Amino acid sequence: xxxxxxxxxxxxxxEYTGVSNELILNNFVKLCEAFPNLSIMxxxxxxxxxxxxxxxxxxxxxxxxxxxxxxxxxxxxxRLGQPKYEYLGKEYPMPEVKxxxxxxxxxxxxxxxxxxx
Length: 117
Prior knowledge:
Blueprint: E1 2-4, H1 10-17, H2 22-34, E2 40-45, H3 54-64, E3 70-75, H4 82-87, H5 101-115
Helix pairs in contact: 3-5
């Protein structure tokens, strides 16, 4: 099962996405409880200026490590959704943002320390 968690801090999640992360985290707990033997890959799309710090990633790691059969993966930021904004007649909010390769390497190293990658 693939499951995305972008941010643990509810206030920050709401500020950047417009919605609470309470349902996302509650559903994750329910999934883990209902299917304790299911392998779950939690993924975090790393978004510059939002969740690209070691503190952000450690919060997610600390949260998900309490559940069995959970692995973790960071996804580098990309702009593949940009055409969707254009199609909807909306301005893409982050056209020039790029994730620095060195930062992504550092965050992946951090994940490796906890998940043996």
